[in-house]
Amino acid sequence: MRVGIVGLGLIGGSLGLALRRLGESVEVRGVAHHPNGVVAAQQRGAVDRASTDLRDLADCDLVVVATPINQIRPVFEGLAGVVRRATIVTDVASVKRPVLEWARCLPEPSQFLGGHPVAGKERSGLSESDATLFRGETWIFTPVDGQELTPFDEWFRLVRGIGARPKILSAEAHDRQMAFLSHLAFTISTAYAQTVRPVADSELGGPGYRGMVRLAEGDASLYEDIAATNRGPLVEAIDSFADVLRDYRERIDRGDRVGDLFRRGVHATR
């Protein structure tokens, strides 16, 4: 099976490494934005071959678009004149509704299946890629209503083969879930860092402080685009968090006992 990966950063590079470890008849072809990305991917062993030209994916059976979300639409437009109608196309973006709209330009939109591996690290880039990144993690797929999933069986098999667990959700449900589970977490981490650093000495901070600011070390440009494309659900998540935080503030300010609030938080993590 010939698998093309467009975008050879953390996710694309990790996917290439993982697929090549399967020891099956999978040929991994990569497309990078810059020539130095091609060289780096080959040196890291993330691909069998790579280039900067989408036309090199013309005879691939499957193409995975692993670019940042702001690059997906032009990549789809480029693939539209390259891939065959039978080629399976998928992506890895953490926002799905706009991606499904953009995929309509592909030669056979029914051969596109939105995807999102819920895996990652604080730091991005090919140098952070890891063949074990997806082990034990959920890989969400977001078919459109009534879409036939049989053509994607081989892709599901490969996803399981690299250790991930496929799960089906609607695009709307996915985007709302990710707003609360992922995008809100980054927003809170950065807001916390902005609140604390002007008034506190970070060298005095222990594990709690480091844990809270860990996500703020992520790619701000990436999350800026995520916030723009998942604006409604993220605003809902921020408002919900603000309501809870306001309750904490008011009760602490009144001198109330707040152990029950803290215990609710502890129980919510279980």
What report would you give on this structure?
It contains ten helices and eight strands. It has helices at residues 10-21, 35-44, 72-80, 97-102, 153-161, 171-196, 207-213, 220-229, 231-254, 259-268; strands at residues 2-6, 27-31, 49-51, 62-65, 88-91, 112-117, 138-142, 165-168.
Number of H/I helices: 10
Average pLDDT reading: 95
Instruction: Spell out the helices and strands N to C.
Output: EHEHEEHEHEEHEHHHHH
Sheet with the most strands: spatial strand order: 3-2-1-4-5-6-7-8
The name of the CATH superfamily of the largest domain reads NAD(P)-binding Rossmann-like Domain
Task: Name the structural class.
Answer: alpha/beta
CATH hierarchy class name of the largest domain: Alpha Beta
| CATH topology grouping of the largest domain | Rossmann fold
The tally of beta strands, per DSSP, is 8
What's the structural domain tally? 2
Our measurement of the CA-to-CA distance between the termini, rounded to an integer number of angstroms, reads: 41 Å
Short description:
By secondary structure, this protein is an alpha/beta fold. It has two domains: 2-169, Rossmann fold, CATH 3.40.50; 174-268, Orthogonal Bundle (6-phosphogluconate dehydrogenase C-terminal fold), CATH 1.10.3660. The chain contains ten helices and eight strands.
Summary keywords:
8 strands, alpha/beta, 6-phosphogluconate dehydrogenase C-terminal fold, 270 residues, single chain
